[in-house]
Amino acid sequence: MSDDSETADSDEVEIDGTRGFSTNFENADLGDEESNQGLFDDLLSGEPIFENKEVLRPSYTPHELPHRSDQINKMATILVAALRGETPSNILIYGKTGTGKTASAKFVSKELESTSQKYSVPCDVEYINCEVTDTQYRVLAQLANKFIEKNENRIDEQLATLESLLDTLDEYDATVDARNPHGANADDQSNDQAASDPFEVALEDATESQTNVSSGDETESESGGSPPEAEGYSGSSESKSTLPSTEPDSTPVDGTGDAAASDSTALPPDHPLESTPFESREGVEARIEELEADRESFEEVPMTGWPTDRVYSVFFDAVDYDERVVVIMLDEIDKLVEKSGDDTLYNLSRMNSELENSRVSIIGISNDLKFTDFLDPRVKSSLGEEEIVFPPYDANQLRDILEHRSNVAFKDGALSEDVIPLCAAFAAQEHGDARRALDLLRTAGELAERSQAETIVEEHVRQAQDKIELDRVVEVVRTLPTQSKLVLFAIILLEKNGVHSINTGEVFNIYKRLCEEIDADVLTQRRVTDLISELDMLGIVNAVVVSKGRYGRTKEISLSVPLEETEAVLLSDSRLSDIDDVQPFIQARFEN
């Protein structure tokens, strides 16, 4: 059969020893290498620019944070109390977006946990993003489930250790039985603590025992005591036993014949339980049953459905199960307060007065410097025990951050000299946002890689700037409520028809006609004015209040985003896509 017939019979082909599917089944020619090029082959043919792209993402926590040593050291001096078993003060961290707040807090928390393991001090840090987990129920449920999981893991570790201890006891007892085929001492059997038959040991070590007796006699004579027993023989306060111990040197004689001798029920030094808190096998087995019962009692909290007080109770019990210091990190804490009030913060900040084993400390991270103004005074006083402010980065600091990350993120020679300074300059204009600088650098690298360029140049950075801005606009516009989209659509229609410095009345007239088109409720002109102000705050439009003299004051509105792209996003909404071509009615204007 020919190659052509084989290709026609089956879409599956084998390329370089790996089975796959041809992207062109009809014309696939296994003898022609070019025709075997798949969808991604051309993209993979170029040399990659990135070494590790993840380093440039906001989720990455670096091992070193340039220009944040003061803030990190201050956090460390507060949280070091946890390593002493004390309760650290609560911390509030403020700063604009991209100033290193979250990265610094996560860096310190990792160091805290690793150091606590080094010194065997129980300390747990839990991170919650309140922009996602934004209600009291969700926060408490997520924390409860995390600590239940930690408790289960610790119980599993303890059970494994105890099971191993039982195995060691079995081996130990088997060894004792092998050495004592005629049966062990009755008292030793009842306590599972016998090491071996003392008579067997005495017979095996006869020579050594005689030597010890001689040595013991000499020592006793010097101390003026009564005639000694051979060293290695235990002396009980009730009856003087002449049986040799399992360890000849384990019970030294001090000449008094009483306190120096160990109790006849004491564990021998080589017994598996000798260095444990357990006195018998039954104690180990009882502890295993207790741990298994604890593990069975844990109940995972569902993300909905329970009363909040029940969720809080489960969380409280899960935290207090073990002795430890707990640090709860609440990122975007202002979002939680805005959505659910300060009940969560009140409960968390008051927990320590009720906890018996654990201690809880809170780290709150916020972009809003004034969010505490809306808190209950009691919550505000307990939550804001320590405050740390993160100032914006300047262009030089951003350049250092980018150079530090780029050394890991890119291959050698992938960046031209002007790329990092330009990224830093763009980000410095955006209030010193390091996240924006990293996004710019990463996007510029992606654009260069897609064009199969070997080096990232200034033009890629400028393209990345436009793309990021457009992506931001698209995301903001896409998530607007329908009424805000209608107001924005009215402004776009006016600008498309050559109207500049649009006023509120003109927007309202077009808005009413759009509402009629899609059968939506018509808001009042005052409410439409508020929606225009919200669009202005989002940076989508520019609304400036101007005075018209005797004609009063009005808002002059202009679009701040690309018109065509914004209109395309609006029309992608299923409700707005039904709008027919609406021609705006333009009012006559009277200039001053």
From TrEMBL:
MF terms in GO: ATP binding; ATP hydrolysis activity
Keyword Phosphoprotein: no
UniProt biased composition (Acidic residues): 1-15
Biased composition (Low complexity): 222-241
Boundaries of every AAA+ ATPase domain copy: 87-394
Region Disordered: start-end pairs: 1-32, 205-284
Pfam families: AAA_22, Cdc6_lid, WHD_Cdc6
Keywords: ATP-binding, Coiled coil, DNA replication, Nucleotide-binding
Parts forming coiled coils: 148-175
Gene3D superfamilies found in the cross-reference section: 1.10.8.60, P-loop containing nucleotide triphosphate hydrolases (3.40.50.300), Winged helix-like DNA-binding domain superfamily/Winged helix DNA-binding domain (1.10.10.10)
Residues where ATP binds: T99, G100, K101, T102, A103, Y393, R405
Domain (Cdc6 C-terminal): residue spans on this chain: 488-570
SMART domains: AAA, Cdc6_C
Family: Belongs to the CDC6/cdc18 family.
Function: Involved in regulation of DNA replication.
Name of the protein in question: ORC1-type DNA replication protein
Originating organism: Natrinema limicola JCM 13563
Record lineage: Archaea, Methanobacteriati, Methanobacteriota, Stenosarchaea group, Halobacteria
